[in-house]
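Summary: Need help interpreting a holo structure output

Steps to reproduce:
1. Submit the protein chain below together with the SMILES for S-adenosylmethionine.
2. Request a joint structure prediction with the ligand placed.
3. Inspect the structure token block that comes back.

Expected: a single structure record containing both the chain and the bound molecule.
Actual: see attached output.

Input attached:
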Amino acid sequence: MKQIETKDNSLTFYNEEVDETYHSTSGAIEESFKKFAIPACDTLNKVKSILKMESISILDMYYGLGYNTLAIIYYLKESLKYTGEIKVVAIEKDPNIIEVAKGIKLDVKEYPLLDEYYDKLKQNKFNVTFFVTDAYDALEKIHSRFDIVMYDSFSPAKKPELWTPEIFRLIKKLCEEYCVLTTYSCARVVKDSLKEAGFYRYDGPKVGRRSPATIATTFEITT
Ligand SMILES: C[S@@+](CC[C@H](N)C(=O)[O-])C[C@H]1O[C@@H](n2cnc3c(N)ncnc32)[C@H](O)[C@@H]1O
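--- attached output ---
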């Protein structure tokens, strides 16, 4: 697999079969923090004080190199100073990409302790449960409930079956009463599928390109 250094100095890969990279080339780690982890936590914090939660449950859909899980654990612990339990369930069909992550070192100025966290993640020192199988299969098998879902499939053009109302309905069934889903895509089909599944949808941050990410919630944001 071809390795690509992105603009924040973190690595990503190019998947030939899908003809897409695993992350934005404008900054792979930046994307994980700014489109997934930070908006998910900050949106949840609007309705539920994260610091008062004994534990927080996160669904990482499409774990890949694990950057989104890494970013959210780092953000919760280092930025929000969250000391409760962080439980992650990660879905990823391809065991090879999880292996590839083991050879990666991260050196990103903005997050000085990131590589230490990444080492711990690779050594299974955080509470991460893996489902190494197809997303639909995994979602049928999971019985936990989640406060946060990070949804990072390859694009709707390349993987239309992963952006359907059906898949978002399966996810919604696993959501806590107050749950936030973040995704990088703002494509019409994504917003329509989320709506059909019963999520409220809001524009997420614009990072590295003009169009915004998407934040979907099980609750209406009134402010
Ligand atoms: C955009 S990448 C995810 C990047 C990842 N979030 C990260 O931070 O490295 C999409 C991932 O979806 C996985 N994938 C593709 N089809 C899948 C499916 N049907 N079920 C589960 N995972 C799938 C791919 O193997 C790939 O790792």
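--- end attachment ---

Reviewer comment: The first helix runs from residue 28 to 47. The domain at 27-217 is CATH 3.40.50.150 (Rossmann fold).
Status: needs-info
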